[in-house]
From TrEMBL:
Family stated for the protein in its record: Belongs to the FHY3/FAR1 family.
Pfam families for the chain: FAR1 (PF03101), HTH_FAR1 (PF26175), MULE (PF10551)
Localization terms from the record: Nucleus
Ranges of residues in domain FAR1: 72-163
Function: Putative transcription activator involved in regulating light control of development.
Top-level lineage group: Eukaryota
Organism of this sequence: Eutrema salsugineum
Principal location class: nucleus
Listed name of the protein: Protein FAR1-RELATED SEQUENCE
Keywords: Metal-binding, Nucleus, Zinc, Zinc-finger
GO molecular function, one term: zinc ion binding
Length: 502
């Protein structure tokens, strides 16, 4: 029986083009990005994640729309003055359902003695509960057909000391491992990093002092232990699903080729005869390339975290400055070999014609592939792709001097000629101590593809306009915005209708 196609999730590529697998990028302005800055860490550790900016002491009669809203408010208040809360008893009736909620201090009540395990030296765990009577009780009522919750009892009398901010943040209720950090922890754990080194690496990456992460080593250890079995099971499951869905995608390509004589596709297989890379182009895309193929954009922004595949999309630009879909590829990796195959296949689909100019992201493997397969084509890197990576590359090492560096870089981009650029570059990297920096070296090695003084004479049509970039970005986001089956990428009508709406 064929397996149901798996919902697919796309994220922006985060692997840095410098070649160091431990290095990842945070795109400026991308809210889904993975790394957080020191200021964001300090915000996380010094204030509640509650939406309430100003929190006052709760009072009897205070009204909330929902019990969850009341819990968040009370939790924010507790965080502010030095304790945490937990949910205690709830009461329900047949007519109203749950009509009472009790929230209490985390030290409320007393620990009930447990039956000791049949071991020689059972471990004694000291309980934090001391009978604290601080509490907030909620009661539900219906007023003019609208359900609301009001505070029926409240006490802020504690029989224990309240904690300072640097202590209260370590309470379990406030120690959170965000999704981005979870992904990073799992990656490092699979690479063989021990937990203590994972914590140290995260502190270095985020630029915070030891012990200032919003979670502790114990949380990381528990998270890794809980995920280990799940990860192993998921890896096996995803491998099977990826193979099955790619085979189904290939069969769909064959069916399309039978219905559309102009439809072209190709794939490669690994040593186990499993589908490795897949590319396709529609008949009208080949026709469009004959009209709008002088300038091609090869976008490799998104990667599937479900399948581990890189999505590459080829665009042209029409007479109105709008993006024209030319072809798509799915690649197993971001190597020069994979990009070489993608470019070879695309040129073959387009009947051997090379574009005058190709625009891409900054990537050494892709740069080498273009130089090999399109030797007479001008290679240009979008300036936006360069500028969006500067903060990830230099803000931590330069600290308070980053803004000065950014201003110097912008001045560098206004250099009138190559000699002026070279002179300003030497002054910039020397001034900020970036001569040995690998990211500065990467930028310099690719300078002929992004510096305006180098690419000024290249034909770019209107690809540098905001309108064109918006049409490309809108197309990609509509495809990857939600969990979609990988098969959707192949739906000619869906892709074309999305592009026409941009």
């Amino acid at each position: 029986m064929a397996l149901k196609p798996l919902n697919n999730i796309w994220i922006r590529r985060q692997q840095c083009p410098c070649g160091d697998w431990k290095c990842y990028i945070r795109v400026e302005g991308d809210e889904s990005s993975f790394q957080v800055t020191k200021n964001e860490i300090e915000t996380t550790t010094s204030s509640s994640s509650s939406p309430y900016d100003t929190v006052f002491m709760p009072y009897v009669g205070q009204i909330f729309r929902t019990d969850d809203e009341a819990f968040e408010y009370y939790s924010a208040f507790a965080r502010k003055i030095g304790f945490s809360i937990r949910k205690a008893r709830s009461t329900e009736s047949q007519n109203l359902g749950v009509y009472r909620r009790d929230f209490v201090c985390y030290r409320s009540g007393f620990n009930q003695p447990r039956k000791k395990a049949n071991v020689e030296h059972p471990r004694e765990r000291k309980s934090v509960r001391c009978g604290c009577d601080a509490k907030l009780y909620l009661t539900k009522e219906i007023v003019e057909g609208v359900t609301q919750w009001y505070v029926s009892q409240f006490s802020n009398v504690h029989n224990h000391e309240l904690l300072e901010d640097d202590q209260v943040r370590l309470l379990p209720a406030y120690r959170k491992i965000q999704q981005a950090d979870q992904e990073r922890i799992l990656l490092l754990s699979k690479a063989g990093f021990p937990v203590n080194r994972i914590v140290k690496l995260l502190e270095l990456e985020k630029g915070v002092q030891a012990g200032q992460l919003p979670f502790i080593e114990k949380d990381v250890r528990n998270f890794v232990r809980a995920c280990k079995k799940t990860v192993q099971e998921n890896d096996a499951f995803l491998t099977e699903k990826r193979e099955t869905d790619l085979l189904e995608l290939l069969e769909s390509c064959k069916a399309l080729a039978e219905r559309d004589m102009g439809f072209a596709y190709d794939c490669t297989s690994d040593e186990n005869q499993k589908v490795e890379n897949l590319a396709w182009a529609y008949g009208d895309s080949v026709q469009a390339y004959s009209l709008f193929g002088d300038v091609v954009v090869f976008d490799t922004t998104y990667r599937s975290i479900t399948y581990g595949l890189l999505l590459g999309v080829f665009f042209g630009i029409d007479n109105n400055g709008k993006a024209v879909l030319l072809g798509c590829v799915l690649l197993q990796d971001e190597s020069c070999r994979a990009f070489t195959w993608a470019l070879q296949t695309f040129v073959r689909f387009m009947r051997g014609r090379h574009p005058q100019t190709i625009l891409t992201d900054i990537d050494t493997g892709l740069k080498d592939a273009i130089a090999r397969e399109l030797p007479n084509t001008n290679h240009v890197v979008f300036m936006w792709h360069v500028v969006s990576k500067l903060a990830s590359w230099f803000s931590q090492s330069l600290g308070s001097h980053y803004d000065e560096f950014r201003a110097g870089f912008e001045m560098l981009c206004r250099a009138g000629n190559v000699d002026e650029f070279e002179q300003q570059w030497d002054l910039l990297v020397t001034r900020f101590g970036l001569v040995p920096d690998r990211h500065a070296a990467l930028l310099y090695s690719c300078r002929a593809t992004w510096s305006p003084c180098y690419i000024r004479e290249h034909f770019l049509a209107h690809t540098m306009t905001a309108e064109f970039n918006l049409s490309v970005d809108s197309f990609l986001k509509r495809i990857v915005s939600g969990p979609t089956c990988i098969q959707v990428l192949l739906e000619e009508r869906a892709c074309r209708s999305v592009l026409l709406q941009v």
